[in-house]
Amino acid sequence: MEGTRNFEYLRDNFYGAGQDSYTQPFAQNQELFSSLEDIMPITNGVCQMRYGYQLFNNPGIGAVKNMYSYQNLDAGIRKILYTSGTAVDVSAEDGTGVASVLTSTTTNPRCVVSRDYALFSQTQTANLTATSNPHGDCQKWHSTQGLTNLGITSGTAGAPNASGPLTPGTTGTNGDVGTTAWTNPNNAKIEDGVFATVTSAGPAGPFADELKCTNFGFAVPSTAVISGVLVEVKGKATFTGAQIATAHGQLIKAGTATGNDQTFSNLYTTSLQFGSAGSSTDLWGLSLSASDVNDANFGFMLNTRILNVAGNANLSIDVVRITVYYLGGVSINSTAGAGSITLVAGRTYTASYRNSLSGHWSDLSVSSASTGAITNKSVIVNVPYHGDPQVDLIALLGTLDGNDTSTFYVINYITNIPGSAGTSTTYTDNTPDDTLVTQNVASEVDDFGTVHGAFDNSVPTTGLSFFTKYRGRIWGAEDATLFFSKSLDEVTTSTGLVAGRYEEAWPATNSMDVSTQRESIRGLLTDGDVLYIGTERHVWRVSGDSPSNFSKPEIVFNEVGVLNQDVWQIAFAEGRPLGMLWITPDKRVIMSNFGNYEDVGTPIQDILNTLNLSAGSSAWGGFFSEGAYDIYILAIPTGSNTTPDTFCVFDLRSQRWLVWHPTDLFSCGLFNIDATGTPQWLMGASTGKVYRFLSTATQDRVNDTPVAISPMIQTPWMHLGSPTQVKSLNEIEVITGDTNMTINIDGASIFSQTSSPNTVVSGGVLTNSPRGFKKLYLAGTTAKDRFYRVTFNGSGNSVNVLEGYTIEAVPILY
Question: Which of 46-55, 186-195, 335-344, 696-705 has the lowest average pLDDT?
Answer without folding.
Answer: 335-344
